[in-house]
Amino acid sequence: MSRFKSALWNFIGHNKYWLVIIIGLLIVGVLDENSFIKRIQYSMQKNELKEQIEEFDKEHQRNKAQLHELRRDPATIRKIARERYFMKTDDEDIFVLSDEIPTEENNETTE
After folding, report:
1. From the CA atom positions of the chain, what is the Rg in Å?
2. Which of 58, 84, 81, 85 lies closest to 70 in space, CA to CA?
3. What CA–CA distances, in Å, run from 43 to 1, 16, 28, 32, 46?
4. DSSP 15
C-alpha cells in the first residue's frame, strides 16, 4: 500500500502541471455553468429565436398591409367577414363544406 502511495505521489509530483491543465479544461469545457457545451446550446437557441423574430416580422408586415387595406376599402371588411366569420346578407345562404367524417358525437342530423 505504501508503495502505491509513493508511486502515486511521484506521478502527481512529476505531472502536476498537466493534471491542473486537464482538470481546468474539464471544468471549463464540461462542468461549468459557462461551459463550451452551454455556449453551443445558447448559440443554437439564439439562432432559433432569430428565425422566430423574422417570422413574426413577416406576419406583422402582412397584418399591417391588411389593416391598411381595411381602412382604405370597405368592401374588404365585407370580404373578411364572410370568409372568416361566415357572415352573410339577408338574401344569401352559406354552405360550409368540411372534410370531416361525421360520427355519433358530432353528427347534427341524427336527432
Report:
1. 34
2. 81
3. 49, 35, 17, 17, 5
4. S
The whole-number pLDDT of residue 57 equals 97
Which amino acid does the sequence have at 29?
G
Determine phi and psi for 24, rounding to 5 degrees. Answer: -65, -45
Number of residues written out for the chain? 111
The enclosing H or E element of 44 equals helix 36-72
pTM: predicted TM-score of the whole model, two decimal places: 0.51
Which of the 8 DSSP states describes residue 31?
I
Which residue matches cell numbers 370531416?
100
Coil, strand or helix at 54: helix
- Contact call for residues 94 and 86 (beta carbons, < 8 A): yes
